[in-house]
Amino acid sequence: MASGAPDWQTVITLVEPVPGDGTDPLGNYRAIHAELEKYSKALAERDEIVVVTKADLPAAEEVRGQLADALGREVLLISAVTGLGLNQLVAAVAQTLHKPADTW
Q: Which pLDDT tens digit goes with each residue over 9-18?
């Protein structure tokens, strides 16, 4: 890594609350995490920001709560349509880079 380059150590996992194929969002998260572990245990052990997308859908908040309970940590909720939660996501990413969010 070049001197002064950011150290990208955080994985951002996006979870769809109502998958078009009818699968379970929590099961999908677990499948994604299992694939990361197969690919690289080190990658799967990195810090992670978990985000439920499509916050404008009625099921999104419920799925966010289920994931937060299952994982025992904060899960963000965003909507690209309304912009809800995008500032929180940017702040969370900025925090992992050890930069104040207002410098972005």
A: 788 999 999 9
The answer to whether 103 and 94 are in contact (CB under 8 A) is yes
In which domain, by residue range, is 36 found? 15-103
Q: From the CA atom positions of the chain, what is the Rg in Å?
A: 15
Q: Quick check: is 5 in a domain? A: no
Assess contact for 97 and 48: CB atoms under 8 A: no
| Cα(88)–Cα(43) distance, integer angstroms | 23
CATH number at 93 reads 3.40.50.300
How far is 51 from 64, CA to CA, in rounded Å?
Answer: 8
Segment 54-97, tens digit of pLDDT:
999 999 999 999 999 999 999 999 999 999 999 999 999 888 87
